[in-house]
Amino acid sequence: MNVLVKLEITRALRNKKYLFFTVLYPAALFLMLGGTLDGTTKVMGTELTMPAFYMVAMASFGALTAVLMGNSERIAKEREQGWVRQLRLTALPGRGYVLAKTASAGVLSLPAILAVFAVAAAVKDVRFDAWQWFALVGAIWAGSLVFAALGVAIGYLASGDTVRPVTMLFYFGLSILGGLWMPTANFPQWLQDICAWLPTHAYAALGQAIELGNAPHARDVAILAVYFVLFTGAAAWLYRKDSLKA
Amino acid sequence: MTTTTAARAAQPTTDPAVSFENVTKSYGTVRAVDGLSLALHPGETVALLGPNGAGKSSTLDLLLGLRPADSGSVRLFGTTPREAVAAGRVGAMLQSGGLMEDVTVREIVALGCALHPRPYPVDEVLTRASLTDIAGRKVNKLSGGQEQRVRFALATAGHCDLIVLDEPTTGMDVTSRQAFWATMRDQADQGRTVLFATHYLEEADAVADRVLVLHQGRLLADGTAAEIKARAGARKIAFDLDGADPVDEQLLRALPGLTRFERHGATVRLQSADADETVHALFALGIRPRNLEVAGLGLEQAFIALTEEASK
Q: Which of B33, B94, B140 is the best residue to mutate to test the A interface, defined by the most A CB atoms within 10 Å of its own CB?
């Protein structure tokens, strides 16, 4: 299975489009969105400066992109092309395929996170304690597992033709409503009430709490845990259903 | 046909390589596999024949554990298909098997070797599948025949005991096809069980030492190619009637052993399960057939005769 993970990573690194959207795009977006404001203005509804807010938002967004896109679209396409079927003729255990996809997407989400952090520290002078940097990387990386599971579920739910629009719906919906692109404090109250329960909102909140020097809130961790169980359950159910169809 | 099975059953062999016991599989209202029972023994090279929709692909899917049977049991070497596949005992090449994109031929073959519990060296696998020259090429830039060779390489990436091939030579030219079967014969000589589904009946005739004919999800015939031909009305008889010698067609149709009767003017074409008896009776009618020919049927004609008969 290690060979499969390695090969998945190799081929992802060869795919320039995927690399651009996962590694460079979030860092570039950070510069665009967070670059216009100075480092002292506090973001509405938070105690964070604009660059600090957007650093976590874009790192989370980058990790989300890597795992969601990496899983959903490739699984749906490879299911249709019969590669999944081909793999089932090998000694690789059934779950091995999904685990390898998730592991490789996980490996690729790391440079996305680090790229945003590097740009933030170098260009916008974002400064934190060493433990905060490590905690940020750890929290954002671990949190991305929730969306890796969602990616697997979508990959087994959608066909090769419909997977892109379905993924985009989740991708943009969760990114915008979860406050990864802009603070949700600008939204009407009723929408904010909904947003507060989204996994992406809790995901960004992990990093924001660390930036403020706190541990992530139990409520956010709990929300993410529930979504993880939900998405993993859906992925497992859809995977089993698909494997009966060959 | 029964004799060979009985002879084999008498041997105290180990578990059969493949065993189906009363296996049924339906898709909606369509019964793709209908109470199928069969056993393949180690070392046999077996062809699986059947018209489109006969249940060949479904049978292979069940055999490889890609789909579960509705009822009955499928065992490979005494274990479940998935266990046998996980143990690396089965190498399979399916038509529908897709390949990983954005990787080279060598990389995907190396993956196949790495996933196998008892792999062969990558170079050896590449050579055997005639892929050495294109080892550096991207998998998504291959021709149909080359892709087929990559699938073959994946199926033979390691030491296995059963090789399952679904229409393996589709898309190959004549030379590749011959080279392919030479490799397969090698594999069989090393004691492996080879099961292949094919549309090319001459391949079945030339390569298989046992032929299974599947029709509407059932096993229609099971024996050597020669036995299948015999069973289908193995011989064709053709002759011309003497115009001066009027014959009652009913008498001809009543000849013993006939499985098929055709008459075009003076020319009569028959197929018979027992040509000796038929010709003898023909002369006994007092007819003097001219240009009499008695010849064996090809497997293809035998196959058509068998399935047509079963469809009636």
A: B94
C-alpha atoms less than 13 angstroms from C-alpha of A237 in its C-beta half-sphere = 9
* pLDDT score for A142: 93
CA separation, residue A146 to residues A140, A159, A195, A228, A238 (Å): 11, 22, 17, 5, 16
- For domain B233-296, give the CATH number: 3.30.70.980
What residues of A are in contact with residue B98 (Cβ under 8 Å)? 78, 80-86
**Series of mean pLDDT values for 10-residue runs along chain A (246 residues):** 88 84 87 70 76 90 89 90 89 84 86 92 89 94 93 91 92 91 86 92 93 91 95 88 75
The segment(s) of chain B belonging to CATH 3.40.50.300 are 2-224
Q: Which residues contact B224 (CB under 8 A, 6 or more apart)?
A: B4, B209, B210, B211
Contact residues, B window 160-189, toward A, CB-based 8 Å cutoff: none
| Of the partner residues A4, A82, A92, the one whose CB lies closest to the CB of residue B96 | A82
Q: Where in chain B is the domain with CATH 3.30.70.980?
A: 233-296
Report which residue type is found at B65. Answer: G
Interchain CB distance below 8 Å, B97 and A83: yes
B3 pLDDT more than 60? no
Residue B184 has pLDDT above 80, yes or no: yes
- Mean pLDDT confidence for B170-199: 85
CATH architecture of B2-224: 3-Layer(aba) Sandwich (3.40)
